[in-house]
Write a structure and sequence with these properties.
alpha+beta
Length: about 160
């Protein structure tokens, strides 16, 4: 559930999907290749986790129905001063509207992938982000989900 009056997949003026992702089998293969191969670089693993975040956001907004439209284009990440990264649950739509997931299951799903992001592999995820600002405790970024979804083609 988000902060909007309508469910995200029922929002008005949502003609298509914001980005496309590989089918389930190809996505699984990409994740396996970049996560389990001993030759995978930290940056490759980080970019793969961003691809997983793009897939997770799409699945949360569509109820895992890949034929349904969705309009998420950005996801808020926070890099904490102690070195860990988390998704806050906030995301942006194609028209720039900031929305937030509130459902505990959605937030749990969003917490898994960024746990593998850190300053040590920032070369794989920071280029996909826009700096938003921060505090003495954390720095906020907007992950470009469209670019993250293209990772296999860019790798």
């Amino acid at each position: 559930m988000t902060t909007t009056d309508r469910a995200p997949h029922q929002a008005a003026a949502m003609p298509s999907q914001s980005y496309t992702l590989p089918d389930a089998q190809a996505l699984s293969s990409i994740l396996d290749r970049h996560w389990y191969e001993t030759s995978a670089t930290p940056e490759s693993i980080a970019a793969t986790m961003c691809l997983l975040l793009a897939s997770t956001v799409r699945d949360l907004l569509t109820g895992c129905d890949r034929t349904q439209p969705f309009d998420a284009t950005g996801l808020e990440l926070q890099l904490h001063t102690r070195g860990w990264v988390e998704a806050t649950g906030a995301y942006w739509t194609a028209d720039g509207t900031r929305r937030r997931f509130h459902d505990i299951d959605a937030l749990d799903a969003l917490r898994e992938a960024p746990s593998d992001l850190s300053p040590d592999n920032s070369g794989g995820w920071m280029p996909l982000c826009t700096l938003l600002g921060g505090t003495t405790e954390y720095t906020r970024y907007r992950l470009d989900l469209t670019r993250a979804a293209r990772f296999p083609a860019e790798a």
